[in-house]
Sequence to fold (171 residues):
Amino acid sequence: DISVESSAWNSPPESLRPQFDAYVCWYETYVEKTVAVEQFVLGQGYAGRMDHLALLKDGRLAVCDVKTQALSGKKKSFNYYSNWALQLGAYAGALPSSADVLMSVVVSSTEPVVLEAYAWPKPPSYYHGLFLGLLAIWNEENNYWPIVQPIPTDERTDGFVYIGTLSGVCA
Fold:
């Protein structure tokens, strides 16, 4: 578990201190426990690096992605893009257990600092399904068909989340 006093927090540059403090405030208010940070995940023909897998204080397991946006002038609220939900759905689909919610945590890159955590309204499996459909189209258009082979559970001893290996892709 991470707390503000923990050495797990890296001290940010002074210019980023307001954003850092806003994130720590959100974390301490809503997160019970960090399960993984910057975790590499491997799905069926895709891979990525998930920002944060967190057990929330309400008991839900959340896949979180942190974004920044400028708020200035007439722009008083954040934009939430549907491709963010697809990215989170891909991460959730690559996990060995089911996530309960996908969250985009957005912090302003301008003063005054604002932070919003947006829980996408549909189940993670919905966004994962959309991602897989788009991935299949991309694979077809690019003639890219990785060979996916499962890794037996008893061989996963290094603490990383592996769903399968890609063979023949880098040959």
Q: What stands out?
A: The chain has a mean pLDDT of 83. The two ends are 40 Å apart (CA to CA). The chain is about 25% helix and 30% strand.
